[in-house]
Structures are given as structure tokens and as C-alpha cells.
Amino acid sequence: MRLSKFADELPVPPVLQPRWKDPFHTYYEVNMTEFKQSLHRELNDTTVWGFEGSYPGPTIEATSGERVFIQWINRLPDKHLLPVDRTVHGAHGNVPEVRTVVHVHGASVEWESDGYPEAWFTRGFQQTGPFFRKPIYRYDNTDRACTLWYHDHALGITRLNVYAGLAGFYLIRDHRERRLNLPSGKYEIPLMIQDKTFKEDGSLYYPEQPEKPVPGLETSIVPEFFGNTILVNGKVWPYLKVEPRKYRFRLLNASNARFYRLKLDSGQLFYQIGTDGGFMPHPIGVREITLAPAERADVIIDFANLAGKKITMTNDAPAPFPAGDPPDEHTGTVMQFRVSLPLSGVDTSVIPAVLLPLPKINEGSAVKIRYLTLNDRQDPYGREWMLLDNKPWDAPVTETPKLGSTEIWCLINLTGDTHPIHLHLIDFQILDRRDFDAERFKKEGVIRYTGPPIPPEPQERGWKDTVRANPNQVTRIIMRFGPYTGLYVWHCHILEHEDYEMMRPYLVIR
Ligand SMILES: [Cu+2]
Description:
CATH topology of the largest domain: Immunoglobulin-like
Shape: globular
Bound molecules: copper (II) ion
Helix content: under 10%
Organism: Caldibacillus debilis GB1
CATH architecture of the largest domain: Sandwich
Domain Plastocyanin-like: 45-175, 385-508
Family: Belongs to the multicopper oxidase family.
CATH class of the largest domain: Mainly Beta
Protein name: Putative multicopper oxidase
CATH superfamily of the largest domain: Cupredoxins -  blue copper proteins
Oligomer: single chain
InterPro entries: Cu-oxidase-like_N (IPR011707), Cu-oxidase_C (IPR011706), Cu-oxidase_fam (IPR045087), Cupredoxin (IPR008972)
Number of domains: 3
């Protein structure tokens, strides 16, 4: 089934209104439900899961320093929309099939509100996971202005819950951002990019078996899932009518496994102003932007002098990344901008020359350097089994940074894929990447570098919470742990890897 491109207008998720708000706190209730939604005009309505009846979920906007409380409420059916693999960690026979727990990706929060994968809960909090602590989460929003997103994080079924639709934007704003005079209001639009595959009847397709089916297993995890259709904000290949002026877009890759290398077919530049964790020191003009799952880029596109033009945003990232197949004409197309609206007023917004200073974390301040491998093994069924530091999820906690201390983590990738590695709680800076002899490391356990350190790409020179760890490279990141102690996780953000079982707990101690 081939759907027409640019048939539907881009939806913009609504901004969520609080249940109440006073000078000291803001309270939201957010229901997760199953419903039908039109994802393309030629497709029957699709059964999806969403927040407050919306996929993507409504955008939550907080001000830096605002104390926000959210009750995430599971009102989903008992039966999952998609095939659950009971052999995957956390999804074994005795646990309820549908479990949810919501994590605000990139936020700095107390551990009890962070959405720990085993803090899941079922409909009406009837059953809860062993690490469930409270039904109402607290977010202090101590971060600077940035583009965050919320999504499900339940152990062993995150890939299915997010694919079903459980994701939305969470934006933090601050006074410095307001002073920058960026495009705002209807000229500031979040873009959540995902890939999906549909069945003929319009329902969501998710594979039950990998390429080589596993005898004796009805449903089996796939190494990675790649859809054949690209959606933005829950619409297949949408178009957006714009005025000939500047717009600000929050780009987010919310796909399970697909990377994007985005370009505009007009050849024009994206002016990138922010990374995962907020503004960069200066805007940079770039022709392409690479986003691994969970990475964000805050960009300005200037459509001035382009009245009447149609501009397509394209993707040429191989899947799997970086050594897989290039996208076809379908997965190589993301959305279209139509410069068809009249200018409604003089565009007084700017691309500021200076944004926000980036205090560099000094390498010399690190009290600990951890060497952590990314491994590719086989499970007893012969399936791909991805691990961090050769340890499964259930192994005892080994990463225990001290509150307030600075550490360098060296991610030693021994696999053939790039893995987007995400740490909860903190933002880090990328120090460098360096080629090394992976085969020799596997035999002797020593790092022999085969090239000089490569500085992070210009588009990565800011606060990050997700880093691409490339094959045959050691990627070094530096961060200071705080302001909370407690139990968090670090993991690969390819959701099939995260579920099986490229995720580890880590504990910030006093
Ligand atoms: Cu991975």
C-alpha cells in the first residue's frame, strides 16, 4: 500500500492546560488511553495509544524554576495493541501485559519521579512494579530553556508502548530565551519524526519475529524495527503552509531505531540554535542534521524570499546506521514546507549572534574515568543480544558516581552499529571520539587507538543527554552528577536494544 505524500496538513499538538495552578505549584493530570486517530487521509483510522486522547501527546510547557506535579494515569486496556515478547527482561509470564511508566527525557528530577523502568503501574494503579514509589511525579524544572520530551519507559515493552504512540514534547522556557527574540507563537513548531508501517486496514504493524524466526517462540523481539513510512507529529508525510519569514522548529527523532540525516531540497541552511539540553553558544548554519533516536535539534529555517516555493525535508541516513541500506524514495522523504501564506506582518524575530555561554567542563576536574563497552552477543535462542559493559539489566549496580562529582565515561563500541547512549538525570558534554582496534580489544582487552581524537561535530557542541557512540570508536563524555542522589538508568535509545537489554541502572550516592 502506497500512501500519497503531502496529502495532510501537519498537526501541531495542543499545549496541555493544568488542572490547577497557584504561585507555588502547577498540577496536571495526564491520561493514557487507546483511541482511533487519522494518520493519513487515505488510511482507515488507526488504533493508537496516546496522552489525553492525542498522539503525539499534548505539549507540556514549563518555566525554568516552576514546580510541576503530574499524575500520569494508565487507562489503557489489559491487552497490548502490539505483540509482546514474554522472553524479554521484565516481560516474563507473571507480570501484567500492559504496564506503563513515564519518563521526561532530559529532565533533571528526583529518582522517584524519573520513571524508573521497574516503577511501572497498570490501569488505575491496580498493580505496580517493585520500584514504584508514588502516583504523582514532581518536576522542579531546574534546567535552562530546552526541548525535552516525555515517553513511556516500562521495562521490556518500551519499544511497543512508544511505537503505539506514547510520546509528547515537554518544553522548558526561561527569561533569557524570551530576550532572544526568536520566532515564537505560531512561528515556533515542534516536529516529532517517527517511522511506522501500516497494515492494509490502517492498523499499526510491528513484526512478531526477526528475519530468522525462532522455533518455539510465538513472538520474538527483532534486533531493530524500521518502518516504511515517515510521520511527523502523527501524520504521514505531512505538509506545512508557512509565511515567507523565519520559523523555529524543535526537531525530535522519536523513532524506535531509525536515524535521520535531514536536509532541505532547496539546498538552504538550517540555523541550529540548540542541542538536547538547551541553547548553543552561537547559532551554526548547517546543510544537514543527523539525529539518532531521542536526539533533538532546535533550529530556525528562514523562508523569506521563497514565496510560492515548495521545500521538502529529506532523509538520507542508512538503516541500520551507519552501515545499513540507504533510504528509498519513501523513507527518504520526511515532510514538505509550502511557502504559500501571505506575510501577516514584518518579521522582527532574529537569529541572534550570541545565544548562551557554554561553561566547558574541565577534563582535569574528573575524579573518575569509567571504561564501558557496548557489546553484541547472542542469547540462547540465537538472537542478537546487546549489552552495556557485558552485563544484563539484572546484574548488580556497578556505576555509582558520587553526588557533585565529575566523571568521564569512555564508551567502547565493539558492535557494528551506532548506539545513541542516553543518561538520565544529567546533561553531559562530548569530549571526543577516537578510532581504535576493536578486534584487538576483544582479544586482549586493551585499547589501541588507530587515529587522533576527533572533536564533536559542530551540531553537538552544547549540552547533550544522548550521544552517538559509533562502531570502532571510543566516545568520551564528561558530566557532573547531581543535583539528586538515587537510582537512575543509562541505556541505548534504540528501543529494541533498550528492551533487550542494553540498559543498566546507575546509582548516584552521597
Ligand atoms: Cu543500541
